[in-house]
Design a protein that fits this description.
Length: about 110
Amino acid sequence: MGWLTLFKLLKNNFSFVLIAAALFVAGVFYIQTLHLKVSVNDAALANASLLSEVDLLEQNSDQLLATLNNEQLQRERLEAEIANSQARLNSFMQKTSMLEQISKKQKPNNLTI
């Protein structure tokens, strides 16, 4: 008996039921749209945060690369200085050896007392 009464009530107020159903569906879509907006805003904030982190990492990478290049240049300069010092040392050792040979040749063989 309840179903029949409900059917008669719906039949007499069909336009009201359609409006109520349309409002319900519109409300659900509106809530879903708000939820989607919040999700999009959260994603945009997360994306902006990630982009700023990427920018910071790029800056750090550039600084590290510049430091590495400076250290490489300093290493090459020091290696050149070491090679120059080694060449000077070798030249000095050759000259010392030549002087020793000359001094041995010029020493008198007999010693006088």
